[in-house]
Queue: 2 jobs
Job 1
Amino acid sequence: MMISGTTKLIGHLGYPTESFKAPMIYNPFFEREGIDAVVVPMGCSVEDYPAFLRLFFRLSNAHGALVTMPHKVTTTQLVDTVLPTAAIAGSCNAVRREADGRLVGEMFDGEGFVRGVLRKGRKVAGARALVVGAGGVGSAIAASLAKAGVAELSLFDAHGPAAEQLAARLREHYPDLALQVGVNDPAGCDIVVNATPLGMKEGDPLPLDVSRLQAGSFVGEVVLTREITPFLAAARAQGCAFQVGTDMLFEQIPAYLEFFGLPTTTPEDLRAVARLRKEDAA
């Protein structure tokens, strides 16, 4: 793709950069559509990041930033406005500059998850949901489920205070949401999410008692290293519909594009145009 003096620059900020996949998804789409923008990996260490983020947005052609580990939490303290979903999640993975120069931070991990559920024909508004894992991605999913109108939300984390703190942030923004904390029983839940790292390694325990899953439940996974984790395999055996971790990744990219004010597309189109290596495409 041709880069010129008019090209909009989207920095992909994190450290290290070797595993970054976003440039191989966004840039082929930009090239095909003739969109004058480019995503560039930018490795920035933890100690340099606070100064670098502000300096990056002083560039006249800096259009936005995709933020990944280890900077998502720090970013909430560096932008001028943290939107509600990012505030609940306690982390940002996207920053844009407004016309007046203010930096606005948002979180799209949960949006990607919820869009995937909806596109698979499942109802979120009024549903009962369980999120196991109250870290960054679990908090983001819980925030987006609340935004989408779930009626009841159960939260569980092996580190109990993390779930309590997430519940407190949710209550601040969604005071009418029915919340349970410390419960990881999926019985009676319409949506069940594993938002823990369990399943990344061989021999990991399952995040919950899968025998309690009901066939009508929709089960979601966030692990990206394998498509069918032991948890999803067990849920499938119980007759549950499910969503794999990479669906969340591709579903959130259209939301990012909308946030940056750029032309958008479908997850299927992005999968088709992406130039991922075979080992990255699982």
Job 2
Amino acid sequence: MTGLSILIPVFNYDVRPLVRGLRAQVADWPGPVEVHCLDDGSADAFRQLNRELAHLPGVHYRELDCNVGRSAIRNQLATAARYTWLLLLDNDSRLPDAQFLARYAAARHRGAVLSGGTAYEAAPPPEAALRLRWLYGRHREARPAAVRQRAPHGQLTLNNLLIERKVFCQLGLDENLTRYGHEDTKFGWLLRRAAIDVHHLDNPVLHDGLEPAPIFLQKTHDAVRNLVQLYRAEGLGADTRLLRAALRLQRWGLSHAVRAAFGLGREQVRRNLLSGRPSLRQLDALKLYWLLTELR
């Protein structure tokens, strides 16, 4: 009998609807199912809400005293898991329908790593502050399986990932990446180096927790720093479009000029990204500026 351990790191989010939705589908998995929720230093108001989960059958809810980060908490969850398969979900995920676990159960024979993808609401959020995160998700993250499969390891995300426990524990996540971003880049590279295939499915979860633009920009800046850290330490990330562009400008001796030119209009770019009509091209330019600055 093949069991499933669903792993949800929790940080400042009411995860009760997600857990209840998952429990309603456990009969669709051909074996025992458990849900592990590990709180990573949330505010007390969210802990008070989520402590209800500890009383649900098959749900294990625990709290950490302090925030340990995105990689370390997932490693801890995987260590606590009992079953053959792990399903990694972010706490701000929303199930698309009542067949979510059934689709994974039907596809698990395809390989040891299955990525379901992420979707976003079709209509933009009414709040202007949320538009940038929604726009980025719709145009850069919400891709059908056929598109993601063209670069299977590079398109892997840790959210909504079904993986055999032995594979995850063999590779693990890099706990040196303490900031937000690119944990999945490193993990995808490790899978590729180990010659472990990644199979993409059209089984997306809805991203329900859109961050306001200032928070999203800070996380994006942290991800750029992580990308530079991986590149300098291990030579990873050189195949990403952003780093390829930055390295090309360095080789041509143009990085200083590009930084200087962008610096003159940086505040105008930031105003656009915080507005109700943000431009992804301006976000790309800001990320390139950050990356060139980090590479100096």
